[in-house]
Each structure stands twice: as C-alpha cells, then as structure tokens.
Amino acid sequence: MNPQRRARVMFNFKALIEKHTDELAAMLSAEHGKVIGDSKGDIQRGLEVVEFCCGIPHALKGEYTQGAGPGIDVYSMRQPIGIGAGITPFNFPAMIPLWMGAVAVAVGNAFILKPSERAPTVPHRLGELFLEAGLPAGIFQVVNGDKEMVDAILDHPAIGAVSFVGSSDIAQYVYSRGVAAGKRMQAMGGAKNHGIVMPDADLDQVVNDVCGAAFGSAGERCMALPVVVPVGHETAEKLKAKLITAIEALKVGISTDGEAHFGPVVSALHKAKVEGWIQTAIDEGSELVIDGRNLVLQGHEGGYFVGPTLLDHVTRDMTSYKEEIFGPVLQIVRAKDFEEALELPSKHQYGNGVAIFTRNGNVAREFAARVNVGMVGINVPIPVPVAYHSFGGWKRSGFGDQNQYGMEGVRFWTKTKTVTARWPDGSADAGNAFIIPTMS
Ligand code: NAD
C-alpha cells in the first residue's frame, strides 16, 4: 500500500477505537483491575499515537540534495524493516501495543505483537479493530505466550526489529539476545521516578499532583512518582502533613466503583511483593507513616488490594529506595538543598522520568538541563511526552538508542536508503568533478 492508503486505514482505526472506547475500557478494567477512568486514559494515550500515524506520509518523506556534483543528485528514502515484533507489559494493555504497533504498521511493516500474558484481551481486540479498519489480514498479528514465545521471536531470522517494554532485567536480556541475533532492538525497562519539591512550590498543587502520580493505577505505571524529595526541613514537614490528609481521603475500590481512586494490583504474587517491599523499608529504618498492607474490601475479600502507603526518612542506601516497588507506595527522601535533590535521580540506577515543582524558572531550567534522566516534568507530575514527541528513559530504564513513537518511532521502524544518482549531460568531462577514490 502507498503511505496515503495506510493513513486512511489509520483514520478508520482511530474512528473505531473511539467508537469502542467504552467496550475496550470495560474489558481492560475487568481483566487488569485498574479503574475505568484509568483504562480510558490508557486507551486515549494509545489513540493519540494512532492520530500521529494518520499523518504518516508526511513523516516518511525523505531528503534530497540537488547538484551534489555535476549532474549528480542525492536522495534518501525511508523503507520499512519488513517484519517487526513488539513485546509488551501488563500495565498498559492498550497504550503500549499502540506505541509500537501503530507506528510499525503505518510506516509499512508487518507487525507481530506478543502482549503480556496477564492482560492479552484488549491487544487481541485491537487486532480485530485493525482488520475492520481495512488492514490486510496478517499485517498486525497477536500471539500469546511468555518467555518461550519471546525467545522464538528473538531468534526468528525473518523478524528484523523488536521493541520491548517491561522490567529492566528482562529488557536487558531481550535487548542483548536480539542484538546478538542481528536485529534492531529497543527495550524500555523499569523506573523509580522522583518528584523534587522546592521550598517555593505551591504545596497544595504538589500534593494533588503527587497523590495522583504515586497512587493512580495502584502505582503500576512506569511514569508513576513513587519518590518525593522535599528540599529543606520546613518543606518536608509541611508536605508530609498535607500528604497525610490527602492520602487518608483516597478510596481504594473495584474497577467499576466510580468513586475509587485506584483498584487492586495485578496479581496475588504482586500484592505479596509490594507488601514485602513495605516490610523491607521498615526493616531498613524508614518511618511507616501510613500502612496500606492487609487491606480487605468488604465483598471482595479475595481481591489483591494494597492501600496507599507513605514512608518517610527513606535514604539512598536502602534497597527499598534503589529498587522499583511498582505499587501504591510513596517514599519521602529528604534533601537539604537543590544540589542534593538533583543528585538523587541523577545517580539512581533508573532514569525514566523526573519532575520538579517550583515557581522559579531559572531553577527549573537548570534542573531540566542537568538532571541525568530521560523525561522531565516542570510542575507536571507524569511527563509522558505527547504522541508527536517520543518516549524513552535513560540508564536502566532504556536499552537502545531510539525512543518509542513520534519521529524516533518512525526512524526505529524504517531503514534509510540513500541514492546517489548521476545523469551525464553528454559533455566529455561531465561528472569528473565528483571525486570518489579509485584505483587509477
Ligand atoms: P515483565 O518484564 O514481567 O514482562 C514484560 C514482557 O516480557 C511480557 O510480555 C512477558 O511475557 C515477557 N517476559 C516475562 N518474563 C520473561 C523472560 N524471562 N524472558 C523473556 N520475556 C519475558 O514486566 P511487567 O511486570 O509485565 O510490567 C511491569 C514492568 O514494566 C515494570 O518494571 C515497569 O516499570 C515496566 N514498564 C516500563 C515502561 C517504560 O516505557 N519504560 C512502560 C511500562 C512498564
């Protein structure tokens, strides 16, 4: 298909996702547990990537230099890889498959999606909607499985590029194995995002933002904000008091409870893991301010609920600080000044996102320039870039050199071919000025 016809499929696909949003959101919440509002957000952020893909002909235009030598023109074009694959995590069953799958298909590839075995239903439904939108059968395929299927994808000689999103150890494994097999790879990993709170920040706004970013989706977001860093003792004390009030007002419920701020975590195993981290944090000497363990919801006694948890006096040597918890747990790490606050996320093993809350433009500007993290929010708690920019973290949050979606996604899913063409005009020395090393 030419690019414009592929774009038309994307327009149809966009309309179908909009038409089926309620159905997709209900399906997603029922399987995953996140509240309906969060499921709609999951779908909306994926939809925005599809909207970006509606303009794909523009993104695929190449470059052209007329007259690089006598009668010589140079041009480059972007050609699809051929067959690409995507391996996705459980936490965004709509958004992440669309980050990669929509772009891969829009630029002309066939794409095989291996969704999380813990949330495969919405990815399958998206495949059906793609067919209904006019995509030829086989161009967007969904296969089930876990490690065995992932390894089969990584080793398959016909697959030219693989995009992965998940936890860091597996991201690193997938990246290395794929590269060893000669594939183009990108692998996004885990995170531990910090929110720096300067003394001049609007604390009411900060508390509102931090509560949403730390506890929304039960903290199961790679762009969640599980660490808050107040700068100075006074900021820390005021922030802590306000956080306690706000957290006590949060409601945990089942996904269809319209008043619930967040739902259960994904599995019994994950609940045990999150509660284990809370215990580790206590054992390491941090102060348990609000304990979300052993939460039981009446009528849903078997549910994997963890209440919002707040820990204070967390320090950088604690493993509960160094590792990703991926649950509704907020840790306060106190910093004495701006330099210490800047150093914390900069030296952390993960470098996905970070946020600074301040009214001072110079401080924010300096922070954004110096911090060693891939995505920065200034008074924005979850700085997930819009679909026409690109998403990607640094350090152990991202392996490979191209980000997800936007123009970096277009580059990842295409190869550049550059043509140098000479059309002699018939004169004896035409082209001689264009010197290429030769034997003569
Ligand atoms: P996960 O690493 O357990 O699974 C991700 C994918 O890898 C799944 O499709 C799974 O089937 C597959 N997989 C699991 N074990 C494997 C193995 N041993 N070998 C090969 N493949 C394997 O991640 P998850 O629990 O589904 O998702 C949560 C994690 O994803 C968190 O660490 C979170 O921070 C991260 N995440 C990162 C981003 C990002 O963009 N950086 C976005 C969302 C989630």
| Annotation, overall tally of beta strands | 18
Number of helices: 15
Helical content stands at 25-40%
Number of domains: 2
Largest sheet: 7 strands, mixed
CATH fold assignment of the largest domain? Aldehyde Dehydrogenase, Chain A, domain 1
CATH architecture of the largest domain, by name, is 3-Layer(aba) Sandwich
Mean of residue pLDDT values: 96
In which order are the strands of the major sheet placed?
A: 10-11-12-9-8-14-15
- Report how far apart the termini are: 45 Å
Strand percentage lies at 15-25%
CATH fourth-tier homologous superfamily of the largest domain = Aldehyde Dehydrogenase, Chain A, domain 1
Shape descriptor reads: globular
Residue stretches low in confidence (pLDDT < 50, at least 5 long) are: none
Listed once per kind, the bound small molecules are: nicotinamide-adenine-dinucleotide
